[in-house]
Here is the input.
Amino acid sequence: MEVEFGVLGPVAAWDGEGGPVALKGPRHRAVLARLLLAHRRVVPVERLVDDLWDDPPPGAVGAVRTFVAALRRALEPGRAPRTPARLLVTEGPGYALRTGEDTVDAWCFEREVSGADALTAQVRLERLRRALSRWRGPAYADFADEPWTRAERSRLAELRLHAVEQCGRSLIDLGRPAEAVADLDAHAAEHPWREDAWHLLALALYRSGRQGDALAVLRRARTLLVEQLGVDPGPRLRRLEQDVLHHADHLSPDAAPGDAAEHVWARASAAFDRTVAAGSRARLESTVGLLRELAVTGAGGLEEARRQRTAAIAAAEETGDPELTARVIGAYDVPAIWTRSDDPAQAARVVAAAERALDHLPPHRHEAVRARLLATIALESRGGGTVRARRAAREAERIARRLGDATLLAFTLNGVFMQSFDRAGRAPERDAIGAELVELAARHGLPGFEVLGRLVRLQARSALDDPAGAEAHAAEVDRLAVRHERPLASVFTRWYGAMRLAGDDRVPYDAAEAAYREAAAHLGETGMPGLAEGLPHLALVCLRERRGLPAPTDETADPGPYAPWTRPLVLSARDQRERAAEALRRVPDPPADLLQEALWCLTARAALLLGDRGTMRRAREALAPASAEVAGAGSGVLTLGPVAGYLDALDAALTRLP
Here is the structure.
């Protein structure tokens, strides 16, 4: 575990077990504080000298070096003599503290507070309370008089005040205003110049049924602002006073933030019904836009969107207008991350309709529409590994890049991602696709594709054994999912969390299994049978294989589509070797999807157990390109450990067996 540092209070450090690190004298602590203040950047020795002494003595540079050497011994007590420091490093003209982003309380606090405003009230409250609990006193408390801490202390203090106010706001939003009153009252009394504090306190009192107290608070705020600062209250406070006096409707606890949006929706949809003729082409194209939004709202919405999409395509084809049909098919650009289709029969119908539309489009025209049809073919052909689908993906991407259309490019990159599984070991290429999606989506305001890009990178960084990178993308997915109302995204981060536990040998088996069972309990709510069917059983097979245990023998477990690859191991665990060997001889190549490396590794393990040389050679050839990856982790849902371990075992067995 890494050393952790605290500056939200007296400067401190704790070792990997939570014990305090002895930092010696005040100059040593000052050097550490100054390096932490630099946030991993290099601080020149001359700057350290100037900050530590008003009038530097002779030999100040040598003294700084002595302080640094002592800090290094304290922070890395196990480092061998004359080996390079890992944490407090010498670089260029000075020193830098290369500690992780999660090891300094102020950095964690700032990240938690800055991302909280976009969260739901309950999650926001929990996150802000956790952030505020990091404070042990004023920031850099033992260096409060130093000029070099002044700006940072002021900035952190302001951020803390904002966090306190947002905690109050969260309680009010949750319908618990009485709980917010005491803290907000103390906060406003201590910081009387903060109008937000007075505003929230008065609102909490009013929502608690204390109109008189709310008015008294607003009048006390007016008096303090005029007498102490010589300014009148701002327009928000003045307006709140009038609203409290007149019991304004919007102050009612029952006034939901979505009421106005619902009113606008009702009026707009009524106007659409009145003015757009029934059966018109405009209605058909508008329907696809609604289905696109419906698909990301949750399980019921996704299932209904799938059903109605097929009907919309059929209705478009009935018009005999290939251009309209092409637009209806291509407008459904819903980001997709899982590589097994939820409804293969429907997907085949969509692909066939897209191919017919392509055949009837005028040549050298409607390039954007053509690219959307090609991207649709690539997406709906996921897991098939066909040459046609791969070519469609690349052609769609070329058109989109030529046209310079960001939304179109994001959609076509989704198709390229879906067709990047023709062989094992392509995680680096998918990581690049995800990085481009994230950058493109962030620049052009495409939140759905930013979520997709980060999920792609979560998978790829997991495959490439970069847990910190994967964790960062998972956190961003959760934040974006709340901010942009994408509830299905949390399905994948929940499974990712279970996978992290499964891959950590320090986590007891029972805890890892429980995490998988908890994640599996939510699969029925997703509306994604392509993800849900057989995954819980497969995850437990992989977990037991990862921990060196025999496959589960529960005959009631549903292996779903993964039965061909799990059955040999399950039969072996039941001591049915002949049946296991027969099942292994019938094992097909895994589909071209996110789980192909995992399924090949399970096949390799069964071949090793049963001494099947032919299957060993097949598995070794398929897995060789993924030798640097973590088996299965590229799915973001399960892991079998390094592919290299399976290759080594196969090589040893093939050398040993006749």
The first helix runs from residue 26 to 37. Residues 215 and 241 are 7 Å apart (CA to CA).
